[in-house]
Design brief:
The chain is 34% helix and 23% strand. With 319 residues, it is an alpha/beta fold. The strands form two sheets. It has an eight-stranded mixed sheet, with helices on both faces. Strands 1, 2, 4, 5 and 6 form a five-stranded antiparallel sheet that branches. α4 crosses α5 (124-137), α4 packs parallel to α7 and α5 packs across α7 (156-167). The radius of gyration is 20 Å and the shape is globular. The chain binds adenosine-5'-triphosphate and magnesium ion. The site of adenosine-5'-triphosphate has 15 residues, from α1.
Length: 319
């Protein structure tokens, strides 16, 4: 694996034990110092991919890959214990479901300090000092009260902010943030993403940022991967995704970005139809049923095409 890559995955497939494909042969990399946005609507496999990186894939699922490296470590040959230590000490994780990630019966101050104490030689007071700084950086004013609270006493937005602070406790060398801003109002959203961006700028920490929101990703990421029904539809530097989107699904996503000039009460454009699982879609493009350009060529299996060294897309047509 190249030392320049914080994440380097080749041909990852995740299936259920019954053989249903949830993530379908994806290859994904995150360069050192880069913020990569992974976008795509619900059910496209973003969280499962993140969970595999975090060594948290549910046990009922089966995962296969040709290669899978995180921070230079080879997941395919590594012992479970070593993987856990690597992730715990070096990877900051903002899970999508913040409620179930925090233990409901343990006070925030004890949870937030836990990983830090386990993996650094610092004491509890140093851990709490760092925790205070980080929770105030995510916009929480009454830090003492927050630290003394139990998760069930906090709103979803507060829990999400705790998770973001927690992901930064160990000065991670990689951050995986799964929808880090969904439960937050727009001012706090910006604050949180600005914080991740500042950490990235200051320490060159690579960030894998998963989001539904292409508008948000546009402003914070250097490169974008667009997923749909477990496959990568397009991958390109952010400017190119917006200037020259090649895949009809990417184009459709760009169209539904909420515009700042929208009038009050105006409805958001929606992509018609619903995501279809690969198995039920049969052969050919997984997006074909919803694609306004669909032709007979889309019924065959689709090759990945290359626009240049950094821009790839999976579409039978040359639009
Ligand atoms: N433990 C599981 N067992 C079976 N199927 C699962 C399991 N976890 C997820 N799935 C299915 O895998 C698919 C991908 O799920 P995933 O959570 O990765 O989607 P996502 O892109 O993160 O969606 P969202 O935007 O809603 O978070 C979905 O169809 C989901 O129902
Ligand atoms: Mg998800």
């Amino acid at each position: 694996m190249s030392a320049e890559k914080a994440i380097d995955i080749k041909n990852l497939t995740i299936t259920t034990q019954g053989g249903r494909t949830l993530v379908d042969n994806i290859s994904l990399h995150l360069n050192k110092g880069e913020i990569l946005g992974v976008v795509g609507e619900s059910g496209s496999g973003k969280t499962l991919t993140a969970k595999t990186i975090m060594n948290l894939l549910p046990e009922n699922l089966v995962c296969k890959a040709q290669s899978f490296c995180v921070l230079g470590a080879d997941y395919l040959t590594m012992e479970k214990k070593a993987k856990k230590a690597l992730v715990g000490s070096k990877v900051g994780y903002v899970p999508q479901n913040t409620g179930s990630y925090l233990h409901p019966m343990i006070k925030i101050k004890d949870q937030i300090a836990d990983g830090y104490l386990l993996y650094t030689k610092n004491n509890l007071e140093e851990a709490l000092q760092r925790a205070r700084r980080l929770v105030s950086a995510v916009g929480i004013r009454d830090t003492e009260r927050l630290l003394k609270s139990y998760p069930w006493q906090l709103s979803g937005g507060m829990r999400q902010r705790v998770n973001i602070a927690m992901s930064l406790m160990n000065k991670p060398r990689l951050i995986v943030a799964d929808e880090p801003t969904t439960a937050l109002d727009s001012t706090v959203q910006m604050q949180v993403v600005d914080l991740l961006k500042a950490v990235n700028a200051q320490h060159e920490t690579p960030v894998l940022m998963i989001s539904h929101d292409l508008g948000l990703v546009k402003y914070y990421c250097q490169r974008i991967v667009v997923m749909y029904a477990g496959q990568i539809m397009e991958e390109a530097p952010v400017d190119e995704v917006f200037a020259n989107p090649k895949h009809p699904y990417t184009r459709a996503l760009i169209k539904v970005i909420p515009s700042l000039n929208m009038k009050k009460g105006e409805r958001l454009a929606e992509i018609p139809g619903q995501i279809t699982a690969k198995r039920s879609a049969g052969p050919g493009c997984v997006f074909k049923e919803r694609c306004s350009y669909c032709q007979s060529a889309c019924e065959r299996d689709i090759e990945v095409k290359k626009v240049n060294d950094k821009h790839f897309y999976r579409c039978a047509l040359d639009l």
